[in-house]
Design brief:
With about 120 residues, the protein is mostly helical. It contains 5 helices and 2 strands. A hairpin with a 3-residue loop joins strand 1 and strand 2.
Length: about 120
């Protein structure tokens, strides 16, 4: 099997993906505060230390800023930069696995696009 249905990525990356999706959807816009680590952890049944690691990755990548004693805030341009990074991730990581799966199943790509 191609591994297309498996998601064996670390939990902090899965949590990071949830925040990425929220930013890309516009749930969190430039200047908006992200949910606190504790609130996000409680909402998703995660360990707060794991959430903190996911959040720290956003800070390290320059998508958010920390305001001491207040929280983390989405920086201007974060959504656009995240979209570019996520497109590249999709094309290099996911798309080859999808193509492999399509080929394995003998599906017609044009017919798949018509169903979209």
């Amino acid at each position: 099997m191609t591994g297309l249905n498996r998601d064996d990525s670390p939990v902090y990356l899965k949590l990071r993906g949830l925040v990425v999706a929220a930013i890309l959807r516009g749930d969190h816009r430039a200047g908006d505060q992200l949910p606190s680590v504790r609130a996000f952890a409680a909402e998703h049944g995660a360990n707060p230390l794991t959430v903190a690691k996911a959040y720290q990755s956003f800070q390290a990548d320059g998508y958010v800023e920390v305001r001491r004693g207040v929280g983390m805030f989405v920086l201007p341009g974060a959504a656009e930069r995240l979209r570019v990074a996520e497109r590249e991730r999709f094309v290099t990581l996911y798309w080859p696995r999808i193509v492999e799966h399509i080929t394995l199943l003998g599906l017609d790509p044009a017919a798949l696009l018509e169903r979209a």
